[in-house]
Every structure is written in structure tokens, then in C-alpha cells.
Amino acid sequence: MATTSDIRNGLCIRYNNDIYKIVEFLHVKPGKGPAFVRTKLKSVTNGKVIDNTFPAGRKIDDVRVETHKFQYLYNDGEFYHFMNEADYSQIRLLEAALDTPKLMKEGEIVTIIINSEDNMPLSVEMPMSVILEVTHTEPGIKGNTATNATKPATVETGAEVNVPLFINEGDKIKIETAKGTYQERIKE
Fold first, then answer.
1. With a cut of 50, which residues of the chain have pLDDT below it?
2. 156, 170 in Cβ contact below 8 A?
């Protein structure tokens, strides 16, 4: 058993007969009244995100987990297939277990959180950023770069990201996986 002071991003807890992963949290100490912890929880079974407030000091039922490195192989529409780098065993997960499946390309190394009680995969953690190639974008208009103007671009995995006007097709860009936003152009 843990308490609200143990809450951190990525912690898996049992709540309302389901297992949730803490996506965001904020400890709040108002000037009047007791402290509390505001959280955003994502269900690892169906991907639904809920907001919840825990009073300070409340006991929470944390889930013991292990993390393993897996390589993303492919998806067959419904399932995403991964291979354990240590023993080459394969598992498949539903799209709901993934935070940003559109930013994963084949061969990507991810961390999968596994419940140590029943060896069920709970969620997939992407690297902080990924490097993807732009496959389609409209050409930028010369002289229109005085402001922070952006345009949509499609990357090799099919995801759409807003990029600055100077990005062209064939450029490799770094994308922050947590927000799905453009970070920088990669020079080769």
C-alpha cells in the first residue's frame, strides 16, 4: 500500500476495479481546507482517461510492475506486435495500451510495463522523442516566415504533425512523443 505522497507519473494503481496509470498529477495545498492531489488517470485496459482527486494521505493500492525493453515489429490492424530484446519472445497489445501509436515506426525500441503478479502487459512507454521522415507537406511560401507560422506535415508512420514553413518533403524531423509536437530538423 502506498499513499498520495508516493504518486508520480507512470505509477500504476488499482482504482475502481481496474488498473490505471498516472499520466499527470498535482499536489494542491489550498490556504483554507485540507491538501489534496489532483490526478489524470489512464486505464491500461481500455485507454479511457479520467480525472480524479485524492485527499492527502489517502492510501492507494499500487501495482508492482517490471519494465522490459521491446522492439516494435508491426501492426495487423487490431494488434501491435512487439519482441522482447532479452529472450526474443513476442507479445501483442491492443492500440488502447499505447499512448502514441501513430509515432511508432517498425524497429523502434520501447519500454513495456508488465504487471509482476500475472505477467500481463499494462502499457507502452515511448522514447522521449523519435526521428521520422516527412513524406508529404505543402511547400512553404517565401517571405512568410516572419511569424511562427506552421503547416501540417505527414511523416512516414502516417501521423500528422505541425511543422515550421521551412520543412520540406524528405527532411528528417525530431518529434516529442509526449505531446506529438515538432522539436527540430535533423541535419545529415
1. none
2. no
User: How many domains are contained in the chain?
Assistant: 3
Planar angle of CA 144, 145, 149, nearest 5 degrees: 90
CATH of the domain at 94: 2.40.50.140
Q: pLDDT (tens digit, 9 = 90+) per residue, 149-186?
A: 788 889 988 889 988 888 888 889 998 888 888 888 88
94 and 44 within one domain: no
State the DSSP string of 54-98: EETT-EEEE--EEEEEEEEEEE-SSEEEEEETTT--EEEEEGGGB
User: pTM here?
Assistant: 0.70
User: What's the CA gap between 38 and 128, in Å, rounded?
Assistant: 24
CA 112, 116, 118, 122 dihedral sign is negative
